Fold this sequence. Notes:
This protein is α+β, with helices and mostly antiparallel strands. It is built from two helices and four strands, in the order H-H-E-E-E-E. The protein has one domain. The chain has helices at 2-14, 20-69; strands spanning 79-82, 90-99, 109-120, 124-135. The radius of gyration is 33 Å and the shape is rod-shaped. 6% of the residues are buried. The mean pLDDT is 87.
Amino acid sequence: MDRVLAYRRRRETHLGGFTLMEVMVALAVLSIALTSIYRLQGQTMMMSASARFYNLAPQLAQAKLSEIDRRQFKDITDGSGDFGTDYPGYRWTVAVEDLPTDLITNNKYHWVGITLTVSQYEENSYQMRTYRFYVD
Length: 136
């Protein structure tokens, strides 16, 4: 009878919980998994922001280029600015270059290269280069 009681007591003490080693292994596995998930989430957020920029930047560049196209040749100059409160952090820069060519001999006609750069917080940058023919 004493043997049966001793066996039951020993068995009851082992049913009470996890050993220290089991807890430490579980914590190690959990910490590795959470670290991996955290890194993956961070990369996903960076890729999402980059995709958003490269989707929006060409549209903003085209809108700014449309503004430039509505001007007369004499009013087209280099410049920079931002896109206002609708697009915080987005900036534009325009460089205009009157390109010489042997084909155009009359000073009334101009072959112009326009470089338009859209940037966001100095992290992302999108550059568009186009050419226009203007008549004074």
